[in-house]
Design the sequence.
């Protein structure tokens, strides 16, 4: 970002540029410009007022999106980061403003989203006195941040923010929170310009790749008869989609994805065999326990992917590529660990593996897929009853969008169905709350995604439970005219919990019967166009209207009340015990 | 199998880092038996010494997660055989009791203790050693009216360590070089996944 219009240091009478007096608040905004930030999601308040006051003069350089709740702000920043590959930025005030960020921080931490959150704090002399809107935000957020720091002196701001952006975006990305006391925001200090951080001695984001491990991994792969690749978000975070595809295409190995790895490989790629995990595809789950070499790339063996660990891929030798050494051997003991950025390790591996094809092995995936088609998919995509299914909605959406849309999902049944059936042609297109499973994530994340990829169509697929958790963000959509398409799949239940209650709690439907407002009316109140349909004959037309409408649009589709998501690996079972019904 | 492990972490001296490290244990409901923070052999680098009872596998995962923290440079974990350790203990007893009933000199000799303060009303002894040794002096002094007792956290030196000076130079390099690689061979993978 060399062309960034940063604050020029005044040079008087042709002498060396000298430092100049600026406030801590101005230094914060200068840091944003120097880091190439263009969009900030935030909400003002007492303790962050000096920064907002300074922001008033930066309105033409920094776009600030006023959200309706800080949780909405941070989820928006996550959506922004997930589709742009850049660091999302959030401003919030002290006390409740800061605590409202906690869910988003936890979500970003577990899903490795690069974020820099700036929170205001009470004056330094009031710290620890239970002052108005004081909360110990550093200690509250320590477990859910990659790094956090409290600034009480303005002169620290340039260096601390440089560190914050460096830490958030490098290595395994994560959220960073910087808490700035009000006196530091107001304080004038000698500003000597902004220098980006490129090194912290106690922090090594990318290791030296050890060639002997690459050799060992290649040897295992070359000797394998039924190798299987499972990949996660590491491929996307490492911007290594091309390298990944090259590896697959040379080695000929079938590959399945975690829900955060989704979209790293196009849906219709011949080696893409589908989704892993609890509601993943039949073949990838069953055949995990039949492969002889399992190659895990940028994924962390989450329990929703592995099911019972002592019944997971026991027969296989495991090669684990990951940038985070703490993930190696955490859940699954690897035979060959390849520690490093997969952008770097994958080409090394590709060079060493033999070009091969596995027609019989792939055929086995196809046979399993066929079983799943017959038992689950056909009926989900083409129901024989009048009741609409979530799957058929996604299917028609695929036809209309061609797989080019960004799909943002909330959490629950619709999320699993969307991940299972949505079509993706390119990376950075799937945004979902994977690790934390945060209901209410979808709507604000979609808003952020639209700012992160303004030229793309953004469809937020949300259930009737999740939408009501952050529905206030309709206000943000209204005020900033955010062109997102809100697709509510309404089954008049908290569907995923209901499904579990049906299957594992003798249909004791305990507090899952949730009522909805008239969403079209609510949207109308925010000047958002909308429509609700319950007939299949309206589906295509309604989705088409949603996608082509000039501006934000809400479409509610009434779907089957007690439909279940299958296949399913019940909790406590191994992946091979996946049930088709 | 659970056993006693001593975790040694070299860190930057940062406010809040103690909490960041402590919650790694509390998150897993692991009790910290002893925790000491002190300067290290290098100016500006802090050294945490933490004692827990756990299985090796858990200790290794914990150590990696601690080392992953931005302000932590390096974490080692060792069994008791691999370290030399001491704890310091102070004992306050009534001077008249001690003077009358105990042969102070013998006491000091037998327990490697020394008197730090002798006042008319009380005497403070100090000794250092392993837990059993400092515990033993408690039981010896208890009959004479032990008024106060306090023991410090464990401090430990790793027998095989060559200190942190060379290691720090590697950390301070912008790019890790080949010499940073600790283990060239696959047999030593337990040590490989760290700087």
Sequence:
């Amino acid at each position: 970002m060399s062309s960034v219009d940063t604050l020029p240091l005044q040079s008087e009478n042709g002498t060396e540029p000298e430092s100049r007096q600026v406030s801590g608040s101005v230094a914060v905004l200068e840091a944003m410009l120097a880091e190439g930030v263009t969009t900030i999601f935030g909400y003002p308040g007492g303790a962050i007022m000096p920064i907002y006051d300074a922001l008033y003069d930066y309105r033409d350089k920094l776009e600030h999106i006023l959200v309706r709740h800080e949780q909405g702000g941070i989820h928006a920043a996550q959506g922004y980061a997930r589709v742009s590959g850049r660091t999302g930025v959030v401003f919030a005030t002290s006390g409740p403003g800061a605590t409202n960020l906690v869910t988003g921080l936890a979500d970003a931490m577990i899903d490795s989203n690069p974020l820099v959150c700036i929170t205001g704090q009470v004056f330094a002399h009031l710290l620890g006195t239970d002052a108005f809107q004081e909360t110990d935000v550093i200690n509250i957020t320590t477990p859910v941040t990659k790094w956090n720091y409290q600034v009480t002196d303005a002169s620290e701001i340039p260096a601390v923010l440089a560190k914050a952006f460096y830490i958030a975006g490098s290595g395994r990305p994560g959220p960073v929170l910087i808490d700035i006391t009000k006196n530091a925001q107001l304080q004038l200090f000698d500003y000597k310009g902004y220098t980006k951080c490129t090194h912290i001695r106690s922090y090594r984001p990318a290791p030296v790749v050890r060639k002997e491990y690459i050799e060992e991994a290649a040897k295992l792969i070359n000797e394998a008869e039924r190798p299987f690749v499972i990949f996660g978000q590491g491929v996307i975070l490492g911007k290594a989609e091309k390298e990944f595809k090259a590896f697959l295409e040379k080695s000929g190995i079938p590959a399945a994805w975690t829900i955060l790895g989704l979209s790293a490989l196009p849906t219709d790629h011949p080696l893409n065999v589908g989704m892993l995990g609890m509601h993943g595809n039949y073949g990838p789950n069953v055949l995990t326990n039949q492969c002889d070499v399992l190659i895990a790339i940028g994924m962390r063996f989450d329990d929703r992917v592995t099911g019972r660990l002592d019944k997971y891929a026991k027969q296989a030798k495991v090669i684990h590529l990951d940038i985070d050494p703490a993930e190696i051997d955490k859940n699954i003991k690897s035979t060959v660990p390849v520690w490093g950025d997969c952008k770097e390790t994958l080409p090394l591996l590709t060079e060493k593996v033999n070009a091969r094809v596995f027609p019989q092995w792939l055929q086995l995936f196809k046979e399993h897929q066929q079983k799943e088609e017959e038992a689950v998919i056909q009926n989900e995509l083409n129901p024989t009853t009048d009741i609409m299914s979530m799957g058929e909605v996604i299917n028609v959406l695929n036809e209309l969008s061609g797989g080019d849309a960004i799909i943002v999902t909330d959490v629950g049944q619709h999320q699993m169905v969307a991940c299972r059936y949505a079509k993706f042609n390119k990376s950075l297109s799937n945004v979902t709350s994977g690790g934390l499973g945060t209901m209410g994530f979808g709507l604000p994340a979609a808003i952020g995604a639209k700012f992160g990829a303004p030229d793309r169509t953004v469809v937020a697929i949300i259930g009737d439970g999740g939408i009501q958790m952050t529905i206030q963000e309709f206000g943000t959509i209204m005020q900033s005219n955010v062109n997102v398409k809100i697709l509510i799949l309404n089954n008049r239940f908290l569907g995923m919990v209901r499904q579990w209650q049906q299957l594992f709690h003798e249909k004791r439907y305990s507090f899952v019967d949730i009522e909805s407002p008239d969403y079209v009316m609510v949207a109308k109140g925010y000047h958002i166009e909308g429509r609700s349909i319950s007939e299949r004959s309206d589906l295509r037309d309604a989705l088409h209207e949603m996608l082509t409408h000039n501006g934000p649009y809400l479409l509610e589709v009434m779907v089957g009340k007690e439909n279940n998501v299958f296949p399913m690996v019940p909790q406590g079972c191994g992946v091979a015990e996946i049930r088709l019904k | 199998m659970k056993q006693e492990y001593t975790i040694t972490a070299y860190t930057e001296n940062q406010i809040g880092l103690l909490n960041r490290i402590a919650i790694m244990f509390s998150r897993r409901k692991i009790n910290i038996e002893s925790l000491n923070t002190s300067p290290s052999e290098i100016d500006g680098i802090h050294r945490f010494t933490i004692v827990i009872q756990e299985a090796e596998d858990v200790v290794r995962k914990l150590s990696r997660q601690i080392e992953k923290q931005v302000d932590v440079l390096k974490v080692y974990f060792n069994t008791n055989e691999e370290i030399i350790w001491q704890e310091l203990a102070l004992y306050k007893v009534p001077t008249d009791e001690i003077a009358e009933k105990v042969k102070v000199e013998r006491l000091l000799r037998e327990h490697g203790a020394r008197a730090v303060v002798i006042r008319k009303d009380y005497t403070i002894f100090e000794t250092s050693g392993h837990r059993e040794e400092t515990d033993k002096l408690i039981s010896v002094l208890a009959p004479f009216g032990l008024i106060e007792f306090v023991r410090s956290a464990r401090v430990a030196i790793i027998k095989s360590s060559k200190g942190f000076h060379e290691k720090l130079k590697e950390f301070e390099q912008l790019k890790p070089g080949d010499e940073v690689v600790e283990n060239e061979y696959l047999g030593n993978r337990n040590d490989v996944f760290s700087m």
